[in-house]
Sequence to fold (1456 residues):
Amino acid sequence: MAEEVAVCAKCYYEVKPDNVEMEMDLGYKFSERNGYGTVPSVPCLELLPATTDANVRRSVQLHELLSSFTPVEEAAIRRITPLASIVKLAHGNIGTKGNISCVWQQSSLGTVLPNLPQDCRFIVIVRQQGTSSQLKSTKFNRAKIQLALQLLKETGLEAWSDIEISEHNLNQWPESGDLCDHLSQQLNLVVLERDEEGELYVAEDNVGQDNNNSGAEPVQVLRDGNDIGPAPLQNDVVPDEVYEAVVNIGEQSEVGAENALLAADAVNDAVQRIRGTNPTSQLNANANDPPPTTPLNVNGLPPPPQPQLNANGTEATFQQRDVLPTDGFVNMNTTRYAWARAFPTVFIPRYASINGEMCWRIFHDWTAWEGPRDKDVDFNSWCEYQMWRSDGVPASHPTFALVLYNHKLKNSLQGQGRFVVQNSGVDMTTTCEDIRNAPPGHQLRKQIDNLLKAAHIHTANVPGTDAYWRARYHEFKATSLYQSEVDDKTAAFFHTASIAEYHDYNLRLLLSKYTKNLTNVPEDLPDRILTDQSAFTAAVQSYKQIVTHYFASKLEIWFALFMKPVMGVDQTTLSKEFAPTRGGIHTHSTNTSSHPAVAKFQEYLRDYAESADNAFQLVNQFIENTYSSTLHAGDFPTQPHTVFHNKSHEARKEFCSKTRDGEKVWSDYEMELARAHNECSMKVGSVLQSDFGYNACHTGNPPSDWVKPGGLPDQGYRPTSDDMQRSQDIKERRELKKQKWQSELRLFERNANYINHVCTHKCSDYCLKEKMRQQLFNADLHADINPRDTYEASSGEMMFKSKFYDCRMGFGEKLPYDHSGENNFTRGIPPRIKPNIKFDDNGQPKYEAVRNHPRRVQGPHAASYFGANTDTQVLLVANKVYPTDRIAHENLSNNLVAAGLGGLDHNNSLHILVEYLTKYKTKGGASSKVWETASRSITEEYVNRNGNNEKTILSLVGRHMGEITNSMSVPKDQACFCLAGGKMTRNTIGSTFKCSVNATDLSSLGATEAGEGEAVDSSFTWDNVVRRYKTRPDATEDLNVYHWVAKCWRSNKRTPPQFFGYDNTPTWPLSETFSKWTLTLYRPWRQSPDETKANHESFKAALEDYLCQQDCRVPDRVLNAILRVKRGEMGVNAEESEAIGGAPNAYTPTTDQERRNATHDLAGEAANISDRASNDEEFEDMTDELFNRLRSDAPVGHNWSDNYSVEIRDSLRSTAKDYYERQRQRTIDGNTEHEQLELFDEHIYQPRNAKTDGQKFLVYHNLYHHYLRVQHKQGHLHHPPPTQLVKVEGLPGVGKTFIILTLRNIARRIEGRNNADLASTPTGCSAFLIHGSTHYRLLSISAGKKEMKKPPTTKTSSNALEVAALTTRLRNCEIHLMDEDSMNGRPLFAHITNRHCHTRREGQVIDQEGNSINPATSGIHSLPIIPQNIATRPHGGIPMVYSLGDCNQLPPVGMA
Fold:
């Protein structure tokens, strides 16, 4: 019947099959009648009969035309433009950063078309050389643009009927060409090409004439350090077209375009300024500025805007009105045909028949249809439908999915915010003025804080947000508790996997079949995907929903076909993530296992734990029997055997070393521990090798099957030799791209090749972690070390701290060089002929397999079957040790922790692993303590903003919700996956049942019975839990609340509960609140929780007694948390988890920078997860001690004012005043001819010491522009060289301080004076490091939050010397270097820019009264004069202005 009425499966299952005919009378949700339906195949226009209706011909022509449009041509005709910050990722992927807003194009809300060429420059392309395909994205044809507009207008549709086709605008487009070529001379655009080796270079025929383009460097792909994803040796194919950057909007924007001199990627914060306030007022913010004096071009029109680029093309400055003229923002939910106007190539009008009537219609646009729809379609369903549309156009469009996903996120978040406001009980008419006028501590202020906290918590319902991942963190922890307490299961494996999308043959087959079923794709595309690598790669980039869902499906199949039967996996909690800098999907999962081998090695670990406990107990007994306070209190104030933390065995060892008997006791302990360790290592290794194939061995024959480089000879490895393979050799084999049957006769060779592809490690920025170490200083060996950086150790030797890089994956310190030529600096792991168990800093055991290769990644034989990167790490958790009582268990746990073997305690091991893996899988963790302060700062900024007085709390909540999406970065893979219905997490036992206990006071739990005739509420709330628990059958009398809910809440189905809303973090001594809720949940009671107190006066005493009873049912996890704080144990070192799960990714669309945002990192309703120790011995009240150190020999009634001198009191102030007066006068006098140059460590800070390519480029650029200035001064150049505004971005340690001081030395040497350069930073500490000043002191800017709120003005002072000195200083400046720019807020930067401009331009010196100061009568010589054509430049024409910093470091304090 479904085929009879021709409905898709999505519509078919809306109703029962017997109702299909009836439902078709109304139309299904996604039927053609309802405005959707399949996209029909469009016949070739040339094959249509001559008698075909004109409208039909026009419909076919319009479809063919728009389907062939390039992004530039689409930009020319769109009426609504998305403003997005597009980030280029590795392998041609793209993503978005921050919010996306859609705006009307300029001119009567976008009715005048086409848009001018300079309004369309928002896509930059990398084209691949030597391919048969043509570069399309920047190509345009004016006739196509004109014809498309005419056809669209002739449809008479609401979305296009009112457009005005401007002949003037059309004439601005050449007949045909390349937008980059058309604008290159004016906009410094270049097109980059990729050679056959995949390297980028500048195409000479496309380089503009401006000399800024000379020496342009290749565009560097943003990556996780150098991590290039799965199977790196074969990821050499990139699409023919790779999106590099887009133009954004901003009043005045600083642009970082990843070294692409092509188009500006406007700064996101400028969009925020427009978005956050009245768009009209912001867009017209410069309305009172004088008209520009730009000369007209040959057409009598102003030329396109000239961006000010720095030398390497990473910075540009634009005026908003020049970058992208707009006429206001568009509501994409309510504006009719908004999506069709923004993406005309996705929603192409067609002439079709509906109910027998032929007319023009726009299908698939959610915002409008020709009339009322038979059935409403919710927005989320529409998004999913678009990703699976029958023609595949929405998914394959370069940016549609990114814009749509951002809009969906914003809709979801705003919906959560509205829900919270409507249910908060707060007056919805409350305005920003009411909030601003409410004093601190006022009830309204408290209500607003609680409202915003609730709104942020509710954002956990939106996948991808910080709150979402924090909620998953607590959910996974609750699942782990359920598995151990109810199912008696323990995590056994941590599994990670990613997709080698460029290699998987099954994906190739799937994409071929998918495109074969699409309408209106080239007929030969399915076959070309199977045979042509470039076609396959293009399909991977186009149909991201297929790629990501293929991986999700492959993962499900992998668990069913391999992980369960081979590894015994029976339960899993899984999360899917997307690499922030390459976009690829990958997964992490924690798995329990019922494999017999798991039980075996857990039993061996328990034997090890018991042996270690017994041996350690003998040491404690010896110390207890030997310790004498008289003899030992001096060296051991605290008895060593009473201290239990992971370093306390050192004190025991030292105590035993004092006597011969003690040495014998400690020697016996070490021998027994070594015996137990070796025995356990061999047994565990035998099980893991025989049952799972765990190893770190290369199966190939060395050296021919190994890849360069070899290993280090001092580790016992074979060194690099010419017989070894090169990376290029591995790449050319393309092993993973072959089908399995092609290698059936050479499986040994296939496995060796596979190991070389994806099972060997190569250190990169992704895994290398910067560390510092102390090193003995030798003046001869360390000549490059500044003596000021050395210090004297307690031994009297001179030491210094040196920096090195260590692999967080455990492959050792980075090598200083690589002779093999493979650029591989991995030191490697020494060989191992026997398996071993190693304990990390947390005492958690980790398995070390047999190894014959320095860089082989350890793992089971599973990797070779997965066909891509996969890693399965075994989790060594000992079986439970069941001592006679809880006191004995506490002693065992304490002994193991004190011995550094805490992970051998079953409960402690689970605690450590849960902290490792739940944080790693969800990037969760403890919530920020500064959230409330940060949230209030957002509120204060919004309610105090001009024009917001009458805005209500709905707007305020909307502002907070907008900040969440503004902090997120999303790759296209994630957008397509989530839009297409993909789920980010997977839990085989189902979602936890969440219940907040803080809505009910314990004292009221006795009065929760439903009244007569009242309906019984069955929802999972605390009131219902209490009501049903009190009336439970007698057969479940012995069950506590937790176990009763888990086993009995649902009939024949278990329920994993998650109780929160109370502080579940223990302290020692135990708190009353913690004790009360612990007993309520984990000790049986019948009518009231007060029964759990038994005969005790407090819950605290009752819990302490209950923990010692045999029938105690408090979960082992909770008991272990209590023991940890009782013994003062520190929290878990999360860095140790990297050796299990791998290092976290670098920057993420949403960041611990990965997925953390301090502004929104609020405390979840579940309690804080961090270990909070309360150890009074660690804290000391210094008040009495300091008081006792004061002199006590002063007589009573001593006159402390004797010899008091006012002159001495004021001497420092007077000296400082005199000093600064002399410095000002010296600056004004300008007598620098005979002044000796003051250089900064010139033997270090000189050009030839530049090491990295970036440092060399900056030095060369600086010298080159000094050369141009000298040429101009000598008359060889007629025009002064352009001002250089340079943005330098770099992580700590890359050499920014070296660049600053080197450039200062260069300026002083060339100019021959010490006042040629200025250096400043926001703080005094950072200014000291570069021998500079703070911005405030250098430029006489008033500090303070209030001052920053004022608009910048001309410097006024009654001190003529001060003003004149500032003027002279800035007018003599040739270069100003500003460091730590991440701490520069927009207000401070505005004051700096204002001071530069007004001080260097000709004008009078004004005092505080507004009167001009006469230099002649004020002792001021004539001030330097800057020519007008120079002074009107940015920053007053200072020749070179550098802004250096690291955007990942400290943000501005108190400034946006």
Q: What stands out?
A: The first strand starts at residue 80 and ends at 83.
